[in-house]
Amino acid sequence: MESSSLSQSVSFDVFNLQEPLRKAIDDLGFEFCTPIQAQSLEHTLAGHDVTGRAQTGTGKTAAFLITIINDLLNNPVEERYLNEPRALIVAPTRELAIQIASDAEQLSKFCSIHTVTIVGGEDYQKQNKALEIGPVDIVVATPGRLIDFIQNDNLYLGLIEHLVLDEADRMLDMGFIPQVRQIVSRTPKKDCRQTLLFSATFTPEIIELATRWAMEPIMVEVEPEIVAAEAVEQIVYLVTMADKYKLLYNLISEPGAEKILVFNNRRDQVRRLADNLYRNGIDCGLLSGEIPQNKRIRTLESFKGGKLKVLVATDVAGRGLHIENVTHVINYSLPEEAEDYVHRIGRTGRAGAVGTSISFACEEDSFLLPAIEEKIGNKLPCIHPDGHLLEETPKFSRPSTFSKKPGTGKRPPARRRNY
User: Fold this and answer.
1) Is the torsion defined by CA of 12, 18, 21, 24 positive or negative?
2) Same domain? 81 vs 172
3) For residue 404, is it within any domain?
4) Are residues 131 and 267 both part of a single domain?
5) What confidence tens digit (pLDDT) does each residue in 175-200 have?
6) Based on the domain organization, do 246 and 163 belong to the same domain?
7) Domain shared by 201 and 84, yes or no
8) Each residue of 352-404: pLDDT tens digit?
9) Fewer Cβ atoms within 10 Å of its own Cβ: the N or the C terminal residue of the chain?
10) Which domain range does residue 59 map to?
């Protein structure tokens, strides 16, 4: 296994990349590789399989996309058919898949590579038409919708040359591995394709999957706690449950709090919190698994574009988000899994910027702190908030907008039972 032996100052010039790809990298302002890029590209560009341990925000997406695009340009295929991609990238969430596809389009903008996104929550026929526009090179997909396309004979994976399984640990946690097994079984044998697997953790289960699906994979890793500690200022406020909302509102109102991502653990908590903020006059958006995909995309674009100051999200919806200039990540509730803490705070402090992570620890979840501190390798500063941060919030100035579940109306009145 290789660790961070290569310097962060490795230039993309050391790799023999195709000119259109190199031009796109320059156009994006990338001069030097991140550690995971430097370590993995050395092997993947030579055709080796790689299993990488790295969280989002470390540059792993560009690492596997550069590998795929460069190889497709090096080895053009003259005779092509519809619905037969050359590369497949499987991701656990819709947001991550959409972001990967967006990155692929940016890196391939100076060459004719066709990328299609296949995710649940969007119009099936629209995605099918995208496959039929012309021969597709790269498909980025979530497992469930991809299975639908395969079973309906709208996608053939028998000519896949590159298979990427991104955030394999999250797919394992979300129960997607049986579906991923079906998908992998439809691709060529592992000695006839290049397989890249990325995970935030190297658990025995992940190692077993990598061994099964990849051909003698080279393992490279970047320590997530180093990324978290260096890029993000981390604070924990010791606060009662009753004072949490007041603290959140006042922090959001502080100078310098410009683009804020708030995490809570459950969908109902996220919905209630977003509704209260909106009623208090704060322009905010809601991101959770129950929100329709088209609305999630609009909400993300509004947040990225600055129309929304605050985005309230669950872990599943927030995983893999790439949003520039997030000034603050606020953990309204501490995550139950320490790994999720690392992923949450990784939404800020990106691309060399310094971000701020603020966590609320109350009587109900403060017992989760030791596991988080062990994960990041540091003691977290725990302080009591100043008095002005606990001042009463103003009365609601807007009507409720997020209080009802999307797509549901009022419950019918309960019927009395006769005994």
Assistant:
1) positive
2) yes
3) no
4) no
5) 889 999 999 999 999 999 999 999 88
6) no
7) yes
8) 556 788 999 998 888 899 988 888 888 888 999 999 999 999 998 888 888 65
9) C
10) 12-222
Sign for the pseudo-dihedral over CA of 112, 162, 61, 17: negative
Q: Measuring CA to CA, which residue among 96, 63, 74 is closest to residue 161? A: 74
In this structure, are 235 and 335 located in the same domain?
A: yes
Q: Which two tokens stand for residue 205?
A: 């289960």
Please give the structure tokens belonging to residue 310. Answer: 């605050």
Let me know whether 39 and 186 are in one domain: yes
Q: What is the CATH number of the domain that holds 178?
A: 3.40.50.300
| Contact criterion met (CB below 8 Å) for 367 and 251 | no
Distance of CA 320 to the CA centre of its chain: 1
The strands making up 355-361's β-sheet, listed across from edge to edge, are 284-287, 310-313, 260-263, 328-331, 355-361, 232-238, 382-383
CA 85 to centroid of chain Cα atoms: 23
pTM for the model stands at 0.66
SS3 304: helix
| 406 vs 404: CA distance, rounded Å | 6
Smallest Cα–Cα separation from 209: which of 51, 72, 41, 395?
Answer: 51
Looking at 158, 189, 222, the residue that finishes a domain is 222
